[in-house]
Amino acid sequence: MCRAQEEEDERYSEAVRRRPELGLEQKCMKCKERSAVLIIRIGDAFCKDCFKEYFVHKFRAMLGKKRLIYPGEKVLLALSGGPASSSMFQQVQEGLSRDAPKKLRFVPGLVHIDEGAVRRQSLKEREKMVAEMESVLKMSGFPYQIIALEEVGRYRAVIQVFNLPSSVVQWVSKDIPDMADDYKAAVDGFLGHHTGVENAESGSRTCVQTKLAELSIEEPEPAASTGTFCLPSAQSTQALKQLFDSVRSLTAKEELLHTLRSHLLVHTARAQGYSKLMLGDSCTRLAVKFLTNISLGRGAFLAMDTGFSDRRYGDVVLVRPMREYSLKEISFYNQMFLVPTVFSPALNSKPSEKGSIHQLTETFINKLQSDFPSTVSTVYRTSEKLNVASSVEGPESVSAARCLFCLCPLDTRVEKASAFHATLISEHLSQRKSLDLPEAAVKKCCAESEERRCCKKPAARGSTTSRADERLNLLDLLCYGCRVTTKDLTTLDHLPHYVRSEADHRTHRTAMKKEIQEFLLHENADLEYVLKT
Amino acid sequence: MAASVSLQLEFSGGAELLFGGVKKHHVTLPFQSDACDIRHLLVWIKQNLLQERPELFIQGDSVRPGILVLINDADWELMGELTYKLQDEDSITFISTLHGG
């Protein structure tokens, strides 16, 4: 620790000493021969060749060190066309084309999600962007897919994002193949392969590899998983636009887009038997995300939201291999080695700096970074020290309640004397409601759901009371951060169908559980008692 | 009396949105080459090329934090940043690393 500090100090003072003689004459700190073209950190100047070597090595070292991706495994790369994901894609290509010992050995596939509808692009603009993206993807020779946010998997059946099977928001366990049952129905085309993978994974690792190897031979891959893009129907575009119009703040829009995008990516990965999903989050972006998520009330999930691997979806693991690169490194690499990128405007292009919490944090970090060049790395290193508690990843978490939106274990099931309940109480007080109201409301909605279950039909929506109930029910299924986002939705009517049906399903199940609770032997103590007597 | 400076300017990563969506600009500055550094260039860009929202590109007398500047494909931090003296036929690249440009 002390030594690292000393080294840091030394490096810094060296940098300060060197500063006056800055200029093109400065030599690369690595080869000390060629002149430098880029400063990565204070005092670390690299020439073009050494920079390339450093960049490529870092990618392979990252994957090698973490030992997460097994040879022959199917890995889906999520590409937005932006600098970080394009650069990640280029690194994978580079890694796969290498000579034997250092070669990456997984089987990649590509997916791009077209979010034009949310970004208010015209059909023509969207077509143009998709064509650009497609030309980039086509060159790779990997199987690829371009999906509109509204629509999924055209070549199998048209399932829209509004029509995703509700298993997307369920946690699918790796070890219990049965749980994938309803999911199988939705993707019958891949049924055989999928069970194969699931069963294999409960077995030994070598088994996985052979199975996967078989899979990749069996499948006529490029033909099967390369879907050409077709523009979604005007109706579904309209539905998506309505959903985003019903959101009051830009912050909530960003969060909602992120949620839907993740669902769609995970669904695509599952449907085609990918077990890893690579995201191109850079270190700069993660530092911004880290602070943003704290402000959004998602502090409990920081390790999952910004870590190298994220197991919240169970069978599909998210991986962030670009998390040690700063955007500066990435942009320079792309510029120097002509990595093609496709620029797409974000939700908040050309906004004011205070448009959303995301925007504000980004400006804040960048401003600090320009005065204190180690800002990003400091924030990033802090995030690196956080770990997901073992209880979250352990076997007992299978039954734990998870947020309907982000699938993180609920942080709202806490005791009465907690910050969460304090917030709730002060919220009710500030709305000038009496304190016992929440309980009354809960009772009422239980009664309501009982009725619903009796006739096996969802209660008629439309009356204001049932809407309020639906909102209450939904909120109950969300983590704190997602609750805050949902509060900015003016109406729940436009939420995708799979979210609403799963919400109904869960509410009914809870109500039923409550009803039969007294007949259940759920406490270990009870069980022991019964066994003894 | 030195000749005027002609430059190749490039905007990418979303920065081009502020310049009418045009990425590459070939410009000739009306300054004398011996008295023209990047600081002058930024002022000139603000007055002549920038089409909207100048605060999204320039803040203070430098570029907005998060926008990278490359002089002849090298980091401007190696060249003295704002004090770099422009040469004829230099190429200057601005890359926005900000989310959505």
Automatic annotation (TrEMBL), chain A:
Pathway the protein takes part in: tRNA modification; 5-methoxycarbonylmethyl-2-thiouridine-tRNA biosynthesis
Major subcellular site: cytoplasm
Swiss-Prot/TrEMBL GO biological process terms: protein urmylation; tRNA wobble position uridine thiolation
GO MF terms held by the record: nucleotidyltransferase activity; sulfurtransferase activity; tRNA binding
Location of this chain's protein in the cell: Cytoplasm
Keyword terms, alphabetized: Cytoplasm, tRNA processing
Stored Pfam families: CTU2
GO CC annotations on file: cytosol
Gene3D superfamilies the record matches: HUPs
InterPro entries named among the record's database cross-references: CTU2, Rossmann-like_a/b/a_fold
Role noted for this protein: Plays a central role in 2-thiolation of mcm(5)S(2)U at tRNA wobble positions of tRNA(Lys), tRNA(Glu) and tRNA(Gln). May act by forming a heterodimer with CTU1/ATPBD3 that ligates sulfur from thiocarboxylated URM1 onto the uridine of tRNAs at wobble position.
HAMAP family to which the protein is assigned, alphabetical: CTU2
Similarity section: Belongs to the CTU2/NCS2 family.
UniProt cross-references to PANTHER family, sorted A to Z: CYTOPLASMIC TRNA 2-THIOLATION PROTEIN 2
Entry protein name: Cytoplasmic tRNA 2-thiolation protein 2
Organism: Geotrypetes seraphini (Gaboon caecilian)
Gene: CTU2
From TrEMBL, chain B:
Gene this protein is translated from: URM1
Post-translational events: C-terminal thiocarboxylation occurs in 2 steps, it is first acyl-adenylated (-COAMP) via the hesA/moeB/thiF part of MOCS3, then thiocarboxylated (-COSH) via the rhodanese domain of MOCS3.
Superkingdom of origin: Eukaryota
Biological pathway: tRNA modification; 5-methoxycarbonylmethyl-2-thiouridine-tRNA biosynthesis
Name assigned to this protein: Ubiquitin-related modifier 1
GO annotation, cellular component aspect: cytosol
Covalent cross-link Glycyl lysine isopeptide (Gly-Lys) (interchain with K-? in acceptor proteins) as placed by the record, residue numbers: 101
The keyword Kinase belongs to this UniProt entry's keyword annotation: no
Role played: Acts as a sulfur carrier required for 2-thiolation of mcm(5)S(2)U at tRNA wobble positions of cytosolic tRNA(Lys), tRNA(Glu) and tRNA(Gln). Serves as sulfur donor in tRNA 2-thiolation reaction by being thiocarboxylated (-COSH) at its C-terminus by MOCS3. The sulfur is then transferred to tRNA to form 2-thiolation of mcm(5)S(2)U. Also acts as a ubiquitin-like protein (UBL) that is covalently conjugated via an isopeptide bond to lysine residues of target proteins.
Family that this chain belongs to: Belongs to the URM1 family.
Keyword tRNA processing attached: yes
Entry keyword set: Cytoplasm, Isopeptide bond, tRNA processing, Ubl conjugation pathway
GO-annotated biological processes: protein urmylation; tRNA thio-modification; tRNA wobble uridine modification
A Pfam family reported for this protein in Swiss-Prot or TrEMBL: Urm1
UniProt-listed SUPFAM superfamilies: MoaD/ThiS
Modified sites of kind 1-thioglycine: 101
Protein's organism: Geotrypetes seraphini
Protein localization: Cytoplasm
